[in-house]
Design goal:
The chain has about 575 residues and is mostly beta strands. The chain folds into six domains: about 80 residues, Sandwich (Immunoglobulin-like); about 80 residues, Immunoglobulin-like (Sandwich); about 80 residues, Immunoglobulin-like (Sandwich); about 80 residues, Sandwich (Immunoglobulin-like), CATH 2.60.40.10; about 80 residues, Sandwich (Immunoglobulin-like), CATH 2.60.40; about 90 residues, Coagulation Factor XIII, Chain A, domain 1 (Distorted Sandwich). Strand 3 and strand 4 form a beta hairpin. The longest helix has 23 residues.
Length: about 575
């Protein structure tokens, strides 16, 4: 029995040894499946393709028939390709080749064959066939020159252009084109290469040498010369009413086509004396013109009487009449004369503004017209009228404060009104000044857009800008006016307002030495009364109202100034 098992173990060992030898004899199959080279033989030789990963591209000459090409293809060892190499293929569209490795794995390659695009971009002929004989252009170094009969309309020539095959040209051939100046043509090859040609069309040389226009465009109205071609003269007349500097004028000159003029057009010249202009034709023949500028004689002026004789400094004065020119205005005082700066001058009106610093009092108003003196009589000059330069609003102590900026105000003499629909509402001045006034906006005014009027003595001005007033929403007491701004002790101060419904209503009087709060006598829900106490010191005080509504203390949003006097 033991002998049997030993024999069985020997047989199994030999079996395992034999199997191990068979495994070591197995060889791995290749996975390579590449196209390593792709070429096509053409009239230009053997052309190799560009292989980019799994895309293959090749460009061939124009004479190649894409529908019948036989490529030469090299692939990885032990691999196979389909379609087969060295077989005729139609490459009018991309062709897919499949390479199969020895291990059976596959890889597709897409092959694209393109016809080579032309680089040719030349103009071989440039013709004008509308002429008899045909006009042919001279082509040299990318310039083309043509000569056409004199008088030809260069703006309506039709070129016939021959260019390289498969190229394009811009502007187009066989269309009406303006050749009054050189025209640049761009020829674009099939491969987008570009070449520019400059085409110039010339006339036969002209003998024309005339001045066709002679004018001065720098002036209004334009001065146009009268040209006499028989006597070769040019005459320009300057209107008497226009101020032209004939010592320094620049004529605009138009001459015959292809001719030149000397001095040239636009060049400054002194026309106090006659000037000569030489016109040279294209064929170098010349003609000389003599240009003369003269000034029209002015008619006698007339002046209208002034509509008033009292003016304010800063006011504009207009003098009316006829035949005005070269005017100068002056004010003549016993102590001397002052020349005014003219704002605007026409043949019938001269306007000037009295400076704000003008000397006040009586002065003779005179005007010189073309150096001749004319008197308009005596006028009286008063202080300047107020001017509003700006309006702004701000909020202080629950009040809307309107600040009026301007000039020619007079502290202590200013009065301010809010104006709506021609109705004036006097405003309370909180802070007065010579160039700024602050007023408190009355919140009980009817809602709307209000202009602001400032009166200074007997002068007044109304703003163009408006202040918008909206309906009040507060339940606080409001002060709109007081019966007096200056009071003595023992006098009654009547305060007008709104929302005066609390209990009690008290007045707060605030001065530099402190403040006091006292009950007032309620006359109605829009008016209260308070007697100035005998122990109140002289001075300026601010007043406000306060009251309780349901145990809630309410303060007026308007503070008024009053002064207590001895």
């Amino acid at each position: 029995m033991i002998k049997f098992y030993k024999s069985l173990a020997f047989i199994l060992a030999m079996f395992l040894f034999t199997n191990c030898d068979k495994d070591e004899d197995i060889v791995q199959k290749s996975k390579l499946k590449q196209i390593t080279e792709f070429s096509i033989t053409t009239s230009a030789g053997n052309l190799k393709a560009v292989i980019n990963e799994f895309k293959i591209s090749i460009t061939v000459p124009k004479d190649v028939n894409l529908s019948s090409l036989t490529p030469t293809i090299k692939i990885s060892a032990k691999s196979q390709i389909f379609p087969l190499a060295d077989k005729v293929q139609d490459f009018t569209k991309p062709v897919t080749y499949t390479v199969t490795a020895e291990d059976g794995s596959k890889q597709d390659y897409t092959v694209s064959v393109e016809i080579e695009k032309s680089k040719n971009c030349t103009i071989s002929e440039f013709l004008f066939k509308q002429f008899d004989p045909i006009v042919t252009g001279l082509i040299s170094n990318f310039t083309i020159e043509l000569t056409v009969p004199i008088g030809t309309d260069l703006k309506k020539l039709i070129p016939n252009i021959v260019i390289s095959d498969d190229a394009s040209i811009s502007p187009k051939t066989d269309v009406e084109t303006d050749f009054s100046s050189p025209v640049t043509y761009t020829v674009t090859a099939e491969d987008k290469t570009e070449q520019k040609y400059v085409v110039t069309v010339n006339f036969a040389k002209s003998s024309e040498n005339k001045i066709l226009e002679f004018k001065f465009e720098e002036f209004t109205p334009t001065l146009i010369g009268v040209i006499d071609h028989e006597n070769n003269t040019i005459k320009v007349t300057v209107p008497w009413a226009e101020k032209f500097d004939i010592y320094s004028m620049k004529p605009s000159i138009v001459v015959s086509e292809l001719a030149t003029v000397n001095p040239e057009s636009g060049k400054e010249n002194n026309f106090k004396v006659s000037q000569t202009y030489t016109v040279t034709a294209e064929d170098n023949s010349t003609k000389i013109y003599t240009a003369t500028v003269s000034i029209e004689e002015a008619p006698e002026p007339t002046l209208e009487a002034l509509t008033k004789t009292t003016y304010s400094a800063g006011e504009q004065i207009t003098i009316k009449g006829t035949n005005f020119s070269d005017c100068e205005v002056s004010l003549n005082y016993s102590s001397g004369s002052y020349i005014m700066t003219i704002d605007e001058q026409t043949t019938s009106e001269v306007s000037f503004t009295l400076p704000s610093s003008t000397k006040l009092g009586e002065a003779e108003l005179t005007m010189y017209i073309r150096d001749v003196k004319y008197s308009l009589g005596d006028i009286t000059i008063l202080p300047p009228a107020p001017i509003i330069t700006g309006l702004s609003t701000s909020n202080t102590d629950d009040n809307v404060i309107v600040t009026i900026a301007g000039d020619n105000f007079s502290k202590g003499n200013n009065m301010v009104y809010f104006v709506l629909n021609n109705q004036e509402h006097e405003a309370y001045i909180k802070k007065d000044g010579d160039n700024s006034i602050q007023v408190i906006l009355n919140p009980l005014l009817t809602p709307g857009s209000y202009n602001v009027k400032v009166k200074v003595n007997d002068k007044e001005v109304t703003s163009n800008k408006t202040i918008e007033i909206t309906a009040p929403t507060t339940t606080n007491p409001i002060i709109t006016a007081v019966n007096k701004a200056h009071l003595k002790r023992g006098e009654k101060l009547i305060v007008d307002g709104a929302n005066l419904t609390g209990n009690p209503i008290q007045i707060s009087i605030i001065g530099n030495n402190g403040s006091i709060v006292r009950n007032v006598k309620v006359l109605s829900d829009t008016q209260v009364e308070y007697v100035i106490p005998e122990d109140l010191n002289s001075g300026i005080y601010e007043i406000s109202l306060q009251m309780y509504i349901d145990y809630d203390l309410k303060f007026s949003n308007v503070l008024y100034n009053i002064s207590i006097e001895d």
